[in-house]
Amino acid sequence: MADKKTAPKKPAAKTAPKATSRAGEKKKSEAGPAPRIQPTKRLVDSLCYTAAAPESEKIAADLRRHVTVTLGNDFDRPSAYTYSQGLSYAVRDRLIDQWIKTQRSMYENGTKRVYYLSLEFLPGRFLANSILNLGIEEDVEAALKGTRLTLADLEEQEAEPGLGNGGLGRLASCYLDSMATLGIPGYGYGISYAYGIFRQDIEDGRQVEKADNWLHYGTPWGFQRTKHLYSVHFGGYVRPYTDHEGNTRFHWVAEQRLKAMALDIMVPGYKNGYATNMRLWVAKADKAFDLQFFNSGDYIGALENKIMSEKISMVLYPDDTEMAGKELRLKQQYFFVSATMQDIVRRFRKKGVPWTDLPKYVAVQLNETHPAIAIPELMRMLVDGEHMDWDDAWATCVRTFAYTNHTVLPEALEKWPAELMERLLPRHMQIIYEINRRFLQEVAMRFTGDTERLRRMSLIEEGEDKQVRMAFLAIIGSHTVNGVAALHSELITKTIFRDFFEMYPERFTNITNGVTPRRFLAQCNKPLARLITEAVGDGWQTHLDRIKGLAPLAEDAAFRESWLDIRKANKQALGSLVSDLCGVRPDPESLFDVQVKRIHEYKRQLLNCLHLITLLNRLRDNPGLEMTPRTVLFAGKAAPGYAMAKLIIRLISSVAYAVNTDPAVGGRLRAAFLPNYSVSQAEHIIPACDLSEQISTAGMEASGTGNMKFALNGALTIGTYDGANIEILEEVGAENFFLFGLRVEDVLEKRRGGYDPRAVCTEHPELARAIGMIATGYFSPGEPDLYAPIVRSLLDGGDFFMVMADYADYVRTQDEAARVFADPHEWAKRSILNTAGMGKFSSDRSIMEYATRIWGVTPLALDT
Ligand code: IMP
């Protein structure tokens, strides 16, 4: 199963315990001399191989060696867990060579490097992806022959590192995969949270959060650099002094010190002999024991420093409603940035060139504003540490940094209380004030007399509690700011960053997101990948534009047949998973209608749920109704503090229960909420989806990347004119995309006034009925008011997300999708054309755009 926690199981005792009584001992001695250990060939002899041995034999020997020598287990007593670990080490052995070669060639080429800074990474499981990218799958399968364990068994044992919340973190991992595949000299930097995103259980329809200790059993994939530590400081005060040339300088006298230790995880390129590095920082105490306390007998006090320091990398913040003001989160950000910048600068120093040359050798990409404190940190290093002139330091900074924005929601822009920053990072706060003073002077010169503009653009939001606006800091400290889809990049210049666009129009650009076709097609959908390779040849994995060669085959009935067979098998496999996880067995012939993503009001799982209720009612009214059988699947986590999102999960579970237990439904409709959505669960769901729900309120989803993964695997999208949906529609053709709903302008128009959700409700009897059922407790027997907050937000709260306004068009479009699905060949044709149209959405294309248009880095030529 995809998603179960994979604790090593205790082996069942095969024999009764041996008697150890004195009588027993006596018997033994009476029986003669103790039996000798079987004289076998020494174990280590069977662990060696010659260079000429076939790869499968080498892997088999390495597996045996790691299971025995590295892990201390008996190879002849196979356990999926130890074999999985042993195989991971054997695969890692094959990466290290590549990694060292890559690192050396970066030095030897001396070219510019890019550093991708992200507080989140969602790499997914490593084993399957490493095997794929190394191109050793057949050898591994052969090596496992005779072990009674399959590769799939072993892959399922791996705990997934959930070091991110969703799209932003997964994007960072797709980008590392592409950097490695393209040979871009670069690194990913992040935090090794001991506890990643929480594990989601669904209990009585409710989300219950459990701690996810992904490192509980250690990971074979990371190299701990225990000797490679950086010192990170917090608190204290700033001491001004005069240097020997009479200049006033500043020295930060910090109060708290801790260490950052690197955990390196190798990221292999696709069959190119290249491996880049994801360096994750772990917080360590500066000194484990405070001897002063220890000697005075205060044992706990002595350990306090260790506990306080190490908690910094303990847990990932789950994208909560209220992040601002969380001291630990700001500490995480600075801890990460400080260690990373020290590491970057250490490498740069080896060059022995002037500091003003930093941007010639270093590009730093800020994934959202979470690492934006890197800008004042570099200023501090240059001005305080290197005594660089302010203007030169600032010019160096701006030429080094670039910033990716991921949201159009003003409330999602990060702000930190100035008071908190002053306390934790006093020197940085001074630097921010100085950056702001100079910047506002520039604004005042450009827009004379516009004091309102100065207030709007200031890095400091004035008020009772002053706040530092991190997005503004990121914009003015970067040479390029990019949005993540064409519409999003346009919207930010008109809304949240309008003033900044007027000031620096040349800084703003778009780079549409992409996804790696390795993990999200070649790895997760092997049968389809094989069929595609037969059709268009090998090479689409790294040149995804070649996949357009499938388009003519949409007209080929035999090819469509093969396409449908594969999809059906994928749906059967997902059906078993749904059955295991939710106790609901979907009909593989039915339309698999899937919405998997974070639960958020703007993503509108509610709209999907209202449609589900509508279908239920149609069946209840007319049990003989001929309808396209449908399975509606949901998955996704809600932020623990986001009450409405959690209530939506509960409603979906309740409606699913009603659907699955209503005798009138007769198997034509099934619904389930899959617990604990994750990258590995996505890999099971994506290949089996017919209809991909991308139904956010227009103007609210920056890009989306799930939309790309589904279409790449042949799902048709039902979607709004939002984010990257628009570009998908352009690429696959409007006739192969179920578009519905309001456009951005319509949404804004309605929000300006005159929109009455109650009137809309009355206009559409099916909608009124669905809402009425929720409001009167049909789905919550005994608790009629349970879902009242949902009903209120739709009817009385202004329906900000336009659920009611889009309902009718959505249902009409769903009916159209069901009609098309009833003709399998028509559906297959459109499905093939979706896959064929996805060439643009490879993360390789995105990364090449970053490399040429933002970073100024060129791929390394490696002889593989
Ligand atoms: P780092 O770049 O110092 O973090 O080192 C990473 C890896 O790069 C090392 O393990 C070496 O394989 C390689 N490396 C480091 N410094 C040099 C150098 O000066 N020349 C060539 N390779 C180097």
TrEMBL record:
<comment type="function">
    <text>Phosphorylase is an important allosteric enzyme in carbohydrate metabolism. Enzymes from different sources differ in their regulatory mechanisms and in their natural substrates. However, all known phosphorylases share catalytic and structural properties.</text>
</comment>
<dbReference type="GO" id="GO:0008184">
    <property type="term" value="F:glycogen phosphorylase activity"/>
</dbReference>
<keyword id="KW-0808">Transferase</keyword>
<dbReference type="InterPro" id="IPR000811">
    <property type="entry name" value="Glyco_trans_35"/>
</dbReference>
<keyword id="KW-0328">Glycosyltransferase</keyword>
<feature type="region of interest" description="Disordered">
    <location>
        <begin position="1"/>
        <end position="37"/>
    </location>
</feature>
<dbReference type="GO" id="GO:0005980">
    <property type="term" value="P:glycogen catabolic process"/>
</dbReference>
<dbReference type="Pfam" id="PF00343">
    <property type="entry name" value="Phosphorylase"/>
</dbReference>
<keyword id="KW-0119">Carbohydrate metabolism</keyword>
<feature type="modified residue" description="N6-(pyridoxal phosphate)lysine">
    <location>
        <position position="709"/>
    </location>
</feature>
<dbReference type="GO" id="GO:0005737">
    <property type="term" value="C:cytoplasm"/>
</dbReference>
<dbReference type="InterPro" id="IPR011833">
    <property type="entry name" value="Glycg_phsphrylas"/>
</dbReference>
<dbReference type="GO" id="GO:0030170">
    <property type="term" value="F:pyridoxal phosphate binding"/>
</dbReference>
<protein>
    <recommendedName>
        <fullName>Alpha-1,4 glucan phosphorylase</fullName>
        <ecNumber>2.4.1.1</ecNumber>
    </recommendedName>
</protein>
<comment type="function">
    <text>Allosteric enzyme that catalyzes the rate-limiting step in glycogen catabolism, the phosphorolytic cleavage of glycogen to produce glucose-1-phosphate, and plays a central role in maintaining cellular and organismal glucose homeostasis.</text>
</comment>
<keyword id="KW-0663">Pyridoxal phosphate</keyword>
<comment type="similarity">
    <text>Belongs to the glycogen phosphorylase family.</text>
</comment>
<dbReference type="InterPro" id="IPR035090">
    <property type="entry name" value="Pyridoxal_P_attach_site"/>
</dbReference>
